[in-house]
């Protein structure tokens, strides 16, 4: 952060190495891993796509592989999962939730 922010640089909560919260509301996540881009899992054929909700947030959609049921006009069930932890130390694009491409 820049030095002209004054008191905004003050640390309010320091939970290193997981998260550091500054007075300005800015968060630092020292253990953050690089995000895994959306794509298609070669083992299952499941595709993922990211949909932006805002400049700082997104949802990751997981789509089943094409199959005869879909081609025949049948509908597939939909599962909606809301992660209750808020992804404080990760995100839907973390390697823990999305396999790395092979």
Automatic annotation (TrEMBL):
Domain of life: Eukaryota
Alphabetical list of InterPro entries matching this protein: AB_hydrolase_fold, Carboxylest/Gibb_receptor
Protein name per the record: Alpha/beta hydrolase fold-3 domain-containing protein
Organism: Oryza barthii
């Amino acid at each position: 952060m820049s030095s002209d922010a004054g008191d905004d640089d003050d640390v309010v909560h320091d939970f290193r190495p997981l998260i550091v919260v500054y007075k300005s509301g800015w968060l630092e996540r020292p253990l953050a891993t690089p995000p895994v881009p959306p794509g298609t899992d070669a083992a299952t054929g499941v595709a993922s796509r990211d949909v932006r909700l805002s400049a700082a947030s997104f949802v990751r959609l997981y789509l089943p592989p094409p199959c005869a049921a879909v081609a025949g006009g049948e509908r597939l069930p939909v599962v909606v999962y809301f992660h209750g932890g808020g992804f404080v130390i990760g995100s839907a694009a973390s390697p823990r939730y999305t396999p790395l491409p092979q």
